[in-house]
């Protein structure tokens, strides 16, 4: 079923046999975790508050983000008209073994959900203003720090170039208006697309596996004993614990 969904959305199915797992995404959309260096960096999911609001929580340990920054040279893809699987090859080598869908996603409809001071981001799907399309969860500072780099990409976009930012998600989007994807590289590129008003272009990688949620230990790790976040995520935690029992 998930393979057919991926192919219907334009993903090319790739089997990763020798990935080392230093970069991984687990769970299903609405209860997924991004792991870097075998440790959870971000967990996203539904709050379970009776509404359809969603959130993402990031670990307080800055070393996790620094680990991802250290991988960035291997994550970056050339901005050329190549087969998506070829573009994604350096990233796929970092992922855990399994099946993945890879596609070039042009003119994407997304919104950005930056983290606040309490390490969380919140949004409502289907809102008429601000949250149309896929929720993109940044893995580094947003807005990105270098205005000069954003300007360089904005100039290139103005000339007709379409640089690729890189998304990693737990599964193909069953509903493009209510799904989330982790932005693992290309924060300056995405900011440049927003500056120019051009819909962004992505290299989009989706894990293809059984629909099981991420581990409750991932959520505990990113909460890190924060009482306010623990309360906010209580319903998601109960769901994860029940699903794993």
- Cα gyration radius (Å): 17 Å
Across the major sheet, the strand order is: 1-6-12-10-11-9-7
Q: How many individual domains?
A: 1
In this structure, how is the largest beta sheet organized? 7 strands, mixed
Q: What is the CA-CA span between the terminal residues? A: 25 Å
Strand content: 25-35%
Return residue spans where pLDDT drops below 50 for at least 5 consecutive residues. none
What percent of residues adopt helix (DSSP H or I)? 25-40%
Please provide the ordered H/E string of secondary-structure elements: HEEEEEHHEEEEHEEHEHHH
- Figure out the total of helices: 8
User: Structural class, from helix and strand content?
Assistant: alpha+beta
The pLDDT mean sits at 91
Query: Shape from CA axes?
Result: globular
Number of strands: 12
Model description:
It is a single chain. The chain has 245 residues and is α+β, with helices and mostly antiparallel strands. The protein has one domain (2-244). The chain is built from eight helices and twelve strands. The protein has helices spanning 2-8, 62-75, 84-92, 147-158, 187-196, 216-223, 227-232, 234-244; strands at 12-16, 23-28, 31-36, 39-46, 54-58, 98-105, 110-112, 120-123, 134-138, 164-169, 180-185, 201-208. The strands form two sheets. The protein has a seven-stranded mixed sheet, with helices on both faces. A five-stranded antiparallel sheet has the order 2-3-4-5-8. Helix 4 (147-158) packs across helix 5. The longest helix is centred in the N-terminal third of the chain and has 14 residues, at 62-75. The radius of gyration is 17 Å and the shape is globular.
């Amino acid at each position: 079923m998930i393979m057919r969904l991926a192919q219907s959305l334009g993903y090319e199915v790739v089997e990763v046999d020798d990935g080392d797992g230093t970069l991984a995404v687990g769970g299903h959309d609405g209860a997924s975790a991004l792991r870097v260096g075998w440790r959870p960096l971000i967990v996203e999911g539904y709050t379970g508050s009776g509404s359809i609001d969603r959130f993402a929580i990031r670990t307080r340990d800055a070393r996790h983000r620094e680990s991802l920054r250290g991988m960035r040279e291997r994550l970056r893809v050339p901005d050329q008209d190549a087969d998506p699987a070829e573009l994604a090859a350096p990233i796929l080598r970092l992922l855990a073994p399994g099946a993945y869908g890879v596609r070039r996603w042009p003119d994407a409809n997304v919104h950005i959900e930056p983290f606040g001071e309490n390490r969380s981001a919140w949004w409502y799907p289907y809102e008429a203003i601000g949250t149309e399309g896929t929720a993109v969860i940044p893995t580094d500072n947003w807005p990105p720090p270098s205005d000069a780099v954003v300007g360089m990409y904005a100039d290139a976009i103005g000339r007709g170039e379409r640089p690729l930012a890189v998304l990693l998600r737990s599964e193909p989007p069953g509903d493009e208006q209510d799904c989330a994807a982790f932005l693992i590289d290309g924060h300056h590129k995405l900011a440049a697309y927003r500056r120019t008003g051009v819909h962004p272009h992505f290299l989009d990688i989706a894990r293809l596996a059984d629909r099981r949620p991420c581990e409750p230990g991932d959520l505990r790790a990113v909460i890190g004993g924060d009482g306010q976040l623990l309360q906010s995520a209580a319903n998601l935690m109960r769901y994860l614990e029940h699903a794993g029992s």
